[in-house]
Amino acid sequence: MMVEPDLDRFETVAWVYSPSDLALLESKFIQADIMVQRASVWHAAIDPGLTTALGGIELRVRAEDAAAARTLLAELEPIPFRVPFFPGLLPVFLVMAFFGVGSPPRQIPAFALGESAARGEA
Q1: What is the reported pTM?
Q2: Is residue 62 part of a domain?
Q3: Cβ atoms of 85 and 28 closer than 8 Å
Q4: pLDDT tens for residues 40-97?
Q5: Three-state secondary structure call for residue 40
Q6: Among the residues of 7-98, which ranges form H helices?
Q7: Structural domain of 93
Q8: Measured over all CA atoms, what is the biggest interatomic distance in the chain, rounded to whole angstroms?
Q9: 38: Cβ–Cβ under 8 A, 6 or more apart, which residues?
Q10: Is residue 1 part of a domain?
Q11: Number of domains in the chain
Q12: Which of 10, 58, 59, 115 fits as disulfide partner to 39, beta carbons 3.0 to 4.6 Å?
């Protein structure tokens, strides 16, 4: 008897916090022919400050593609740091704070790799 793959089962392989990181990872998955599902992307589009509060944008792939996705993520170069803000932007951020607009998140993407991913932990 042939067992059909469970197409409804997805695994989280990464969390991103910025639209640029999201676009880059999605393009990598598309190039590798891996279908990716995004969670909480609309919260981030409406209010970027919520991205941090909600734990980032989850990138999920089908369970059958999880190993290939983790391999692809492991091959990426690590991001050592973010470029610091230019000090001249302080007045801009003060005006943004006055009007209740938060600064965009600057966290580094997190990937579910290795033993923690195999156990289902993040």
Answers
A1: 0.65
A2: yes
A3: no
A4: 888 777 877 778 778 888 999 999 999 999 999 888 887 655 556 667 777 877 887 7
A5: coil
A6: 19-31, 41-46, 48-53, 66-74, 90-98
A7: 10-78+86-119
A8: 68
A9: 22, 26, 57, 58, 59, 60
A10: no
A11: 1
A12: 58
Calculate the dihedral angle through the C-alpha atoms of 33, 37, 43, 48, rounding to the nearest 10 degrees: -30
Assess contact for 106 and 17: CB atoms under 8 A.
Answer: yes
Under 8 Å between Cβ of 57 and 16: yes
Directed axis angle between helix 19-31 and helix 66-74, to 10°?
Answer: 120
Tell me, what amino acid is at 35? M
Nearest CA among 75, 80, 76, 70 for reference residue 114: 70
Distance CA 118, CA 70 (A): 10
Please say whether the beta carbons of 103 and 17 come within 8 A: no
Residue 32 in any domain: the answer is yes
